[in-house]
């Protein structure tokens, strides 16, 4: 983000020397994602293991919610009303994980009773790399101590990825309840917007109000909407570490490796506030 900020500021130096007004704004605030609020993964039937039956008791879900937005913009007013704006925004996204549970029934030789275990993929967290669109906009703004304006244009979205992490706990349910062990599961997913029908370009539009403190410093409030095409999240190979028996560890890997690619909607709205420096 630091390099992008320098590039944005440097791109306006030639026009800053001409007649007009240069503004640089830093801002921060919450995001409100328009993602599908729930992702449900059903790995379907698992590979057959002789003498062992695996039954899925519920499904694995990811619930997305908004986080913190940061950004930097540089704008140049050719006239008191009309200008251009370059900006870089970063949107943080939180993802809550609801784990799935699986019943594992092992057939034992008679007269021994069957061994029934429960594999619980517990709640966890997802580390989603910040979404950081770059935008170039046309901008209109009023004059005066208090200024109102709007800007809109094209945005570019680089690829992004995230990693989900959660614990997998094995418990014997029958014939005698016993906790067996816990392993740590990590699965990475990546969206590559360069895929067919999933371009990197989108649009953004917003409105802002500036409250002048001095001739060169203002407080600014900004509301902005970003729209991009849906992206396909493709899952990588699962990594399992910890204390599960070999059969159960194999089942955990089989569950994670059969997650289907999902559609992810990187469209969001943000409300930010910041400081504008005017030159």
SS-based class: mainly beta
Major sheet attributes: 8 strands, antiparallel, barrel
Mean pLDDT comes to: 81
Strand order, largest beta sheet:
1-4-5-9-10-13-14-18
Kindly give the count of domains: 1
Distance between the termini: 23 Å
Explain how this protein is built:
The protein has 279 residues and is mainly beta. It has one domain. It is built from 3 helices and 18 strands. The protein has helices at 2-11, 13-16, 246-257; strands spanning 21-33, 39-41, 52-56, 60-77, 82-98, 101-106, 115-121, 124-128, 134-141, 146-156, 160-174, 178-191, 201-212, 217-227, 231-235, 239-242, 262-264, 268-278. The chain has an 8-stranded antiparallel beta barrel. A hairpin with a 4-residue loop joins strand 4 and strand 5 (82-98). The longest helix has 12 residues, at 246-257. The protein starts with a helix and ends with a strand.
What are the defining features of this structure?
279 residues; 8-stranded antiparallel barrel; 3 helices
Task: Annotate the secondary structure layout.
Blueprint: H1 2-11, H2 13-16, E1 21-33, E2 39-41, E3 52-56, E4 60-77, E5 82-98, E6 101-106, E7 115-121, E8 124-128, E9 134-141, E10 146-156, E11 160-174, E12 178-191, E13 201-212, E14 217-227, E15 231-235, E16 239-242, H3 246-257, E17 262-264, E18 268-278
Antiparallel strand pairs: 1-4, 1-18, 2-4, 3-6, 4-5, 5-8, 5-9, 6-7, 7-11, 8-11, 9-10, 10-13, 11-12, 12-15, 12-16, 13-14, 14-18, 15-17
Short description:
9% of the residues lie in helices and 60% in strands. By secondary structure, the chain is mainly β.
